Every structure is written in structure tokens, then in C-alpha cells.
Automatic annotation (TrEMBL):
It holds the Pfam family DDAH_eukar. It comes from Flavobacterium caseinilyticum. The keyword Transferase applies. One of its GO terms (molecular function) is transferase activity. InterPro entries: Amdntrnsf_FN0238. The keyword Magnesium does not apply. This is Amidinotransferase. Gene3D superfamilies: L-arginine/glycine Amidinotransferase, Chain A. Keywords: Transferase.
Length: 311
């Protein structure tokens, strides 16, 4: 199984804003005072378009789908939470915490991918768990080490343990379960998505291990990464708050590896960390300030990797 792909799906926002339904447990979201909703959306579109341009310029195959005005989906720019694509032609659909995010799941997106020559054999649908109040938000909640058949998951209100184990059984992944915390005010609160504090590349892992308060769990996670020969690059909680954990390794033209992140994440890294990362992949960064501030997500969340076979 490949760990990285050249093909990604991205959704261009039409009514992007801070989603009040996700702000209850996403502590990265902020209200941008004094900006009209139309201005926020226009800024987000500019950031999105510039980001896509940078990706396509290095040979990444980006499928861009425009969001629709109805129904209201302020977070549609983060498709990796509701869908994942797998090498055997399987597609997984995930149960979402925020009710208005459930409308992001659009069947016509699958039709469009099939028109592009991607092959879908099977849809595995976990969305009925929403009715019982259980959630698992795609590759936000799940970090897949596809090559080594391991899945990492930091449990949270958006990542249910039983659902995660069910996913691992369905897709033949070994589950690696832990809890990760961030400091909010004077409290330690669960981090809403695993992919905020951790990134898995082919030959490296970026992780804020300080978030894993339980020493045994922290050792277990780091041991699993080392066991698979990953160079571990540690980031601080301050760097994580600049989305330095929210990166994704993808492939451009001639299979060249790129590590994609936001400008804020890139700027937060030390020269030594940059040197460590550049041994594995070339860094590609783009300014996503508005999307990060209002959406509480960054570069990795905006890209749903497509591993499907092609006709």
C-alpha cells in the first residue's frame, strides 16, 4: 500500500465563515471582528485558489469541486472529514459531529470522480452512527499509516473508540488509541482531531508528543512510529497552535515528494526542524490565515487524498 498519492480532492468554498456548530470543541476557531461575511468568504476563496495553483504548478492532480450555496455548509473546504478513498476502490463515508457539516456529503462528487476515470467498487457508510450521537471524522480523526496498516486515533467528542475499532476491522488496520490534550485557558481539553497534533509521512512523523499527557500512551505511540522506521520530528504545543501538525505529504510531477503546510505552520518551524523535514520532502507552503482563523483547520484538512484505482 502506498502512503502518498498524487491525486487530491478539494472543495472551493462559496459561503465560508466561522461555523458556530463546530466552535464548541474546536478551540482554534476565532471570530474575525469587523469583517463582513462576504469579505471573509472572498479572502478564503483567494487563499484557496492560490493554494490550488501552487499544488498544480508542481504537478499535483487536484480535482476541484465548487461548493453549493444550499444547503449551508460553512466548513465544506475541509472534505477530508467526511470521506476517504482507498487503493482497493473502497470509499468510506463518516459520521460528522456538527449537523450542518453532514450536508457536505454529496453523491455527485463520487460521480464526478468516476467520470475522471477513478474506480469505486464499494462504499462503506458509517454515517448512521450520527443518529446515536457517535462520530468519527475521517482522516481528521484517523491518521492512516497505509503502508504499515496502522491507524492512529486521538479520542475526542469527534472520534468514538468503538467506531474507530470498527473502521480498523473493516479496513484491516491495527488500531493505536490514545488521548491528546491542549491547554485552553487553564484547563487541559481534548484535541478535536488527531491530524492537528500529528502528521504521518512515508519516512517521518511530525508529532506534538507533549499533548499525550499519559506517559504510557505517549511511549506506545512513539514506539509504534519508531518500529516502522519513521524519523520522529517533535513540535511544541505553540507550533501546533500554528498548525504545524496539520501537514500532508503528497507527490507532484515525476513522483517528487512534497510536504504541504500553511505559511503560518512553515513560519513556526525552527531551522533545525525544517532541515529535518527537507531530508524527506520539499516543503510547499501557502498562506491560509483566514481559513485557519475562522475554520480552525489548515492545509491538511483541505485535501482529501484519492488513492482509488484508475481505469
Amino acid at each position: 500500500m502506498k502512503q502518498t498519492t498524487n491525486s487530491i480532492l478539494m472543495i472551493r468554498p462559496v459561503a465560508f465563515r466561522m461555523n458556530e456548530q463546530t466552535a464548541v470543541n474546536n478551540y482554534y476557531q476565532k471570530v474575525l471582528d469587523g469583517l463582513l461575511p462576504a469579505t471573509v468568504n472572498a479572502k478564503a476563496q483567494q487563499e484557496f485558489d492560490a493554494f490550488v495553483e501552487k499544488l498544480t504548478a508542481v504537478g499535483v492532480d487536484v480535482t476541484v469541486v465548487d461548493d453549493t450555496l444550499n444547503p449551508d455548509t460553512p466548513d465544506s473546504v475541509f472534505p477530508n472529514n467526511w470521506i476517504s478513498f482507498h487503493e482497493n476502490g473502497d470509499v468510506a463515508l463518516y459520521p460528522m459531529f456538527a449537523e450542518n457539516r453532514r450536508h457536505e456529503r454529496r453523491e455527485e462528487i463520487l460521480d464526478l470522480l468516476e467520470e475522471k476515470g477513478f474506480v469505486i467498487h464499494n462504499i462503506i457508510d458509517y454515517t448512521s452512527a450520527e443518529e446515536d450521537g457517535f462520530f468519527l471524522e475521517g482522516t481528521g480523526s484517523l491518521l492512516l499509516d497505509r503502508a504499515n496498516a496502522k491507524a492512529y486515533c486521538a479520542l475526542s467528542p469527534r472520534a468514538d473508540e468503538e467506531l474507530f475499532i470498527e473502521f480498523c476491522e473493516d479496513f484491516d488496520y491495527a488500531p493505536i488509541i490514545f488521548e491528546a490534550f491542549q491547554t485552553v485557558g487553564s484547563e487541559r481539553k481534548l484535541i478535536y482531531h488527531t491530524n492537528v497534533m500529528m502528521c504521518l509521512g512515508e519516512t517521518f512523523a511530525v508529532i506534538c508528543s507533549d499533548c499525550i499527557d499519559d506517559k504510557k500512551e505517549r511511549k506506545m505511540v512513539l514506539d509504534n512510529l519508531k518500529e516502522n522506521g519513521k524519523e520522529i520530528i517533535l513540535i511544541t504545543e505553540a507550533q501546533m497552535n500554528n498548525f504545524a501538525g496539520n501537514m500532508l505529504e503528497i507527490r507532484g510531477a515525476n513522483d517528487k515528494r512534497y510536504l504541504v503546510m500553511s505559511a503560518a505552520a512553515h513560519q513556526s518551524l525552527t531551522p533545525k526542524q525544517i532541515e529535518q523535514l527537507e531530508k524527506h520532502a520539499e516543503i510547499l507552503s501557502s498562506s491560509l490565515d483566514t481559513i485557519e482563523a475562522c475554520g480552525g483547520g489548515s492545509a491538511r484538512c483541505m485535501m482529501a487524498e484519492i488513492f482509488l484505482p484508475r481505469n
